[in-house]
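Figure S4 source data
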Amino acid sequence: MTLYGEKTPPADDRPTVRVTAVTWPGDEPEPAVPTGGPGRGSRSRRVRLLLAAGVATAVLGSVAGVGAYAYAGDVPRGTTVLGAELGGRSRADAARELRAALDRRAAELAAPLSVRVGERTAEIDPAEVGLTVDVDATVAAAAEADAHAVDRLVGSRAVQPVVAVDVARLDAALKKVVGDQGRKMTMPAITWKGTTPKAVHPKPSLALDPERSAQVVREGWLSRQPVTVPLVETHPATTAEEVDRLVTELAKPAVAAPVTLTTGKGSVQIPPKAIAKSLRFTADKTGKLTPQVDVKRLRAALGDDLATIEVPPKDARMTISGGKPKVVEGRPGQQLDSAALGRDLLAVLPKAEDRKVTGELKPAEPELTAAKLAGLGIRERVSTFTTRFTGGLSSPRSQNIITIAKDVDGTVVLPGETFSLNGHTGERGYAQGYRDAPVILDGKLVPGVGGGTSQFTTTLFNATYYAGLEDVEHKPHSYWFSRYPAVIESTIFWPDLDFKFRNNTEYGVLIDTSYTSSSITVSIWSTKIWDSVKTEYGPRRNITQPRTVYLEPGPTCIPASGSQGFTQDAFRVIKKDGKVVKREKFTWRYDAEPRFICGREPS
């Protein structure tokens, strides 16, 4: 019997155990007649037993030694990563060896990665999307004891590196490759045209799945082969059949007849038109369509009908008395329980009979209490602005200015809130008390309901501007009118043109309006923050002259004397503690207003 170790080729230095010429007791045939005299057979058997025991001990000892050799270090011997031998090393040494190997392949790893998305191919810079080999995670994976014991003793193990990538940056890069190949999901919906429901059937999206894209790029990067990134089709959670079922089983029955709303203070009929305005079908981001009753819309649709059973709460308000702000207490009210009403009404809408719901009136506290209002720091006037108009208070244009001013007067804008003039007044029509007066439409003055409200908008804009409040949205007029400051002015038109400002202070803001027979004034009350807010103008440039336009005479023709067109810059300069802390640039280009003449052009 021979026990010896022999070296394997240089690529694998693990020891190998070889055993030869071993005969185990009982395997060989016994001779029929003993030879060599008495007792010789017994001695021969004992020798064989001792020899076998020795072989076993030697084998076990060798295996134990080889096992200790194979398990030396944190990483089992024979373990490689990207061709780098990490076996038998500590984790720190293995990490250094792997980093050295990666440094040797730096140029290869930095080479652009070819990707294919749909029908398009492109190259991506690995560094720009964060493609790297995570050394520490790779060494940890190499050190994991998940191979079979025999593999550790006599085999080899190639461990795949752990690749990291910035999913968001990769997704942004791949979206450029996708271009117009993808498509957005068409969400399921049910819309209304009057009281007729219309089904919008869903369609799946075709887009990247960021996590799946990252997975295939991580797996394919080191192969140096082009990587195909899939476009994934995602279907909305609600199917076309389910949309049709909602139309048939809910939307159509909902508006088939009115619903009776009964309370302890009386009853109100909810007509189909109000039901259609308040029954909404909303899809979440997965495309799941859910019906619900929007009680706020329902309340608006019922209008004055609810006044017979509800008492709306009244917010505390602030007035200016004796040159100082004064808090006026609000009052609680009684309103329908919105959550219960929405739930109960939705339950009866599919029914053909017994279309009745019982509404519960609950106490409703004002949103703005006197205590809260008093703590907002509204204590001094921080800005004021006045513009002038002609025609006295009896002219339609002046009446429109006063109407919108009264609507806005006393408005409190809380810290961080954005005020929208369109949002506050809603549509300005005849029902709201507005009259026909000249408005600019298609480049000329024509009669239109609400003419003159732009003058109030300009006055309000300037008051907030000189209070140092944040300008969110405004649009100057197409033509410059001398009654307004150039550039620092704003028009308004429902619903497309709005004026918005944000209360970017820690204090409340009170809008106070007042008027005379020839002027409108807006003042902002709060706590003064800035030393001063002023405007510095740049020179007018690109000046153009008006042209003359002859119009058909008649009641809709409004003459105009015309004005120059020009471009100008205005700078809002804000100072605090004697230093300029903000300098904001506003620029506008005015068209030359034509000289409109109501009459035929001279021949």
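Figure S5 source data
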Amino acid sequence: MSAGVVDTTVLRICDVEGEPSRELVGGKAWSLWRMSRLGLRVPPAIVITTRSCAEYFEQGRVLSDALFDEIVDGVRYLEERTGRTLGSGPHPLLVSVRSGAAISMPGMMDTILNLGINETTEAALADESGRPDFAADVRRRFCALYGKLVAGSIDDLEDLPDTAAVLTAIEAETGHTVPDDPIETLRNAVAAVFDSSRSRRAKAYRAHYGIPDDIGTAVTIQAMVFGNLDDDSGTGVLFTRNPLSGAREPYGEYLPRGQGEDVVSGRVTPRPLTWLADNRSALHDELITAADLLDREGRDAQDIEFTVQDGTLYLLQSRAAKRTAQAAVRIATTLVDEGVIDPATACERVTADQIRHLLRPSIDPDEVGDTRPVAAGVSASPGYAVGLAVGTAEEAQQHPGSILVRESTSPEDVHGMIAAAAVITENGGSTSHAAVVSRALDTPCVVGCGSGAAASLIGRIVTVDATGGHVYDGEIGGRATSIDGDPDLAALLGWARDLAPITVVDGVADGGEVFDGDRAIAETGDESPTIPTAAQTVTGSWFDTDAGVRAALDAGVTTIVTTNPLPVLLAAIAHGKAAR
């Protein structure tokens, strides 16, 4: 596993000299490589490549001895880099085992933290840190994650008070226990992360976004840093640009004395990033400096995961941020203004569907009037929706367009989130699972509505004003949104007209021959009508869809008539790029 070698199955990612392939090492490990090259503080890590994942499934979900020997060799490298030892004291090494596909799929696959903790290393960690409570918390956390993700427990283990209670619950439910041998738990954990790439939630996410179902995942094994160590420790997520509005401002949350899973899960509500600025100003300044560098080098808004251990900042991941449709437009046009990208790239970064979502109706303030909300929280993904509030992902899938209301969401709820018109949670903040996935889906989402919100809403028709963070009883009408008066949309429309391989107009001259797709569908019953060979101009709602635009381009059509030009132009640009 020498530095620079890219054809092996396990890589020492921060020592790779040339840029590794994202398809081989996954986005998470690639970001570690990039951050280390920029001189940022990154805990050492190894990565098991996506090639190994494919081989794992080809061999009937078997982790071969040859591969595992390489993994163990990689762990020895981590021991050398850290001066710690997996499974023994006085300075025990603990690692995280994290998934990382080539295409970002936030929260869809599994991560196991604190691997390497057992009764012996708990005692060593307690002696080393001088904090037996911290060491006990680390072991409890690991056992709860292992029980859920490896042993297969469906019980709620995270809230159990101590390790003994967690182990008892796992054995009672599954008949299994958590092995003391960290090498055995490592082997099982790697297999579990590979398996999570074919979970129902991962398959649903890939299907929704048209991601190939066989991309698998890499697995990153990284030396742990501990945000739950003491009062000078914590964990957080920072977006370099606001993922709701697109404004050029840091946006994020910080959880003192927490680990990353606490923030992502939504089980607790973190503090705003301003808390870090007010209470740890030097640390905040260091974080913002790193974020600016990653934004500049990444040429896009970044979603950054970080941990603070005893006052020292460590960066764990940086990736292109999931964003709302409004933010996608603002970020793309701002980056053009900053000279970072050109208009063609801006038009490629905003999808036709995002514009369709952006032009959806919003709540009509005149109809709201003096009506008081029945629930209120934090706007995690703006928008407006009306529907029946349901309490499970299964009910949301059975009733598309309903409002999914949960205490907090997890990756197991993704199929319901895809079907829902909006998502509401009692707990969690703007970087929780519910918030991040809803922004990716462009689904209205309100988080942190407080205990009891679910019980008060489920079974009722409600109106969700996710832009304002409010939920109202009954149906309140909406108001149409227009491109007019929005300088960012106007700029994007102008660039798209120049770049699209087709002309889009809102009317044609009298006497012009126009093929009407809607009339053809009504006459033939064919949902994908055949466009006549000689047709140069087409109209109809079918040609407002991506499929209709592709058909028009493939048929040699030169002009599409529509009252909604921007999504049609962007769909044409995307199809033209794919066809090249």
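The two ends are 38 Å apart (CA to CA). The longest strand covers residues 312-320.
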